[in-house]
Amino acid sequence: MALCARRGDRLDSIRADLESQHSPQQFLALPLDVRRYADIERAVARCLQSFGRLDVLVTSAGIGVLDFLDRLDPANGIAAQIETNLTGAILLARAVLPHMIRRRSGSIVLVGSLAGLIAMPSYSIYAATKFGLMGFADGLRREAGVWGVRVSLLLPGAVATDFAAPSIARRRSRWRTPRALLLSTASVGEAVADLAERPRAMRIIPGWMAPILWLGRAAPWLVDLVADRFFVRRERAAELASAAEVRQPDERP
């Protein structure tokens, strides 16, 4: 098994933990930035050299810079999210697909988000990447199935990690997902393993979110109303007040 991420020190720590629990299985720790195709090609070549084959690819690299579009930095807030969350997953799949096609087998698990079904304010770019990933998963699944390569899309809700923590900490409303509703990293890992062993087009976790998502798509006006009243206006209260003051006519004689 190969573990890939940008932080080499963190990878080495995880590899050591896994090897202590699953000896003598071999684990590779490969520093990798999914925005660089040369990194991806080197990682794939190293995996083939070490294991001789590629059975499963899990794409889970992602960043979240959550803010209103007019506040987002074009490079770090917009381009970086698209390159990491969407383009990176596409490039990873592109790199492993020829090897899976050659063997007429393989499983690709793309990790998306519930934000790929309903986009909320401050998530516009993040949601765009996850909506894009859904389209990519559909297309790739239909392209690759004839070769015996299965493509699955996992859509988890909020997970108990430090994902987008700086963005959330800056919220004036202090709105965040209640801790009781957060998924554990273990439950997400189990869902990924399940899709790798029993591929299917899409899986939503937690499952009880499915009816809520359906309601949101069937009645978008309701989502609009809730988002406007309980989030957007609270977050932008100071700006709205300032704009109102600017529009007031000068009442001095």
Could you say what the CATH architecture is?
Answer: 3-Layer(aba) Sandwich
Residue stretches low in confidence (pLDDT < 50, at least 5 long) are none
Topology-level CATH name:
Rossmann fold
CATH C-level category: Alpha Beta
Please give the radius of gyration in angstroms.
21 Å
Find the count of extended strands (DSSP E, 2+ residues).
6
Please give the share of residues in helix: 40-55%
What is the string of SSEs from the N terminus onward? Answer: EHEHEHEHEHHEHHH
Write out the strand line-up for the largest beta sheet, numbering strands in chain order.
3-4-5-6
Mind summarizing the main beta sheet?
Answer: 4 strands, parallel
Count helical runs.
9
Strand content: 5-15%
Could you explain the architecture of this structure?
By secondary structure, the protein is an alpha/beta fold. It has one domain (55-240): NAD(P)-binding Rossmann-like Domain (Rossmann fold), CATH 3.40.50.720. The protein has 9 helices and 6 strands, in the order E-H-E-H-E-H-E-H-E-H-H-E-H-H-H. The chain has helices spanning 8-22, 37-51, 74-103, 124-144, 165-169, 185-197, 209-218, 220-235, 237-247; strands at residues 2-5, 28-31, 56-59, 106-111, 149-156, 202-205. A 4-stranded parallel sheet has the order 3-4-5-6, sandwiched between helices. The chain has a two-stranded parallel ribbon with strand order 1-2. Strand 1, helix 1 and strand 2 form a beta-alpha-beta unit. Helix 2 packs parallel to helix 3, helix 3 packs parallel to helix 4 and helix 7 packs across helix 8 (220-235). The longest helix is centred in the middle third of the chain and has 30 residues, at 74-103. It is globular and about 70 Å long. 23% of the residues are buried.
